[in-house]
Design a protein that fits this description.
Elements (H helix, E strand, L loop, with lengths): L1 H16 L4 H8 L3 E10 L5 E12 L5 E7 L5 H17 L5 E7 L8 H15 L8 E5 L5 H14 L5 H5 L18 H17 L6 E5 L3 H12 L3 E7 L2 E4 L8 H11 L6 E3 L2 E3 L8 E2 L1 H4 L6 E4 L18 E3 L8 H9 L3 E3 L1 H4 L2 H15 L5 H26 L3 H16 L3
Parallel strand pairs: 3-4, 3-5, 6-7, 6-12, 12-13, 13-14
Antiparallel strand pairs: 1-2, 2-4, 7-8, 8-11, 9-10
Helix pairs in contact: 1-15, 3-15, 4-5, 7-8, 7-13, 7-14, 13-14, 14-15
Length: about 425
Amino acid sequence: MDSFNSALKILKMGAKHLNLSNGLLQHLSTAQRSIKLSFPLKKDSGDLEIIKGYRVQHNNVLGPYKGGLRFHQQVDMDEVKLLAFLMMIKNAVVDIPFGGGKGGLEIDPKKYSEKELERMTRQFTRELLPNIGPKLDVPAPDVNTNSKIMDWIADEYIKNLKTNNLSKLKAVVTGKSVENGGSLGREQATGLGGFFVLEKLVGKLKMKKPLTVALQGFGNVGSNMASILHDNGYKIVAVSDVKGGIYDSSFKGFNIDLVKECRLEKGFLAGCYCIGSVCDLAKKYDQGIISNEELLELPVDILIPAALENVITAGNATKIKAKLIFEMANGPTTPQADKILGSRKILVFPDVCANAGGVTVSYFEWLQNMTNQKWSLQKVNQKLKEKMEKAFANIWQISQDKKVSLRLASYILALKRLIKKTKF
């Protein structure tokens, strides 16, 4: 709740800049619907287990609720409530016709077989059936969910709502496999969208390449971002996953393609130390293996948190040495840390724009389904570039004009668009 209340404080600060009425502010601050449910799962052993699920639909003034479904043991109503609110802001920032939603199951997916996960996902879909739909609420992948899980949701939805227009029904979720109505470019969309924004930001700040980067999180977002940055002249000197990470103290930078291959083979990053064309064990190198906490404090140009929320806190914000923090995770910086970093003149670029590439291409997927089209990868990436660069330009201009942080500027931009569509 602290994180949610802090997000509301930023919204209130933005509202003051726009002379927003208290009534309208309350409307945008309050979730329109919160769904908490539970259902039995029959496990492969024959035993029954009660599964808890959540979906918060924060606001739909811009269009259908939109936001991911995550499968994680720490999912709860407070987390989902915050993330649904942030999705409302994010969708408004990049100017796509979606509202804010978020949901998930309170489970550790590693403890279930694929058959159990499928049964669980299909039951979750049936429980949500009255509250999701292409023009109502459109979920997507998030932490520990993927295109296969989205395919199960789409299939179960279609089974229960028979119609001849399959393309439109498939629009109930985005992030599907390409063969099942998904969009080309969706897998790398968050990382690529982040790259487009980072390039513009680096240009505005007149930072000279090659720039050193530490990247926490090596899932879909982090690994794609690392590859894109590596291919465009950035030096990736540290990466980590849930088990820890690797750090190149020579600052030559890793060969990310080899690191990805090595991690796939070994199952974790800490066993991979790939520079040039060679991989070796990290333990052979001074400071080769580091913890996720140590990675955040490395002396790099750019720090990219791309894992879970609240990793940069009041406890470590005074130790961060990066010149720029670029938020690819949702809510990685606590409000207390934000203040400390601001006082230390460390620039933070906010998640509500930085990682919006995923939902932007999700919108493109939804649009393709609704109009029965199939876009080329080139078209998807070009439209993504246009959306992300325009959002950045708007945020930067507001920040400069009003002398406010980039985070507050993002909220002001979002509020302008939300107010324009709100009718009372």
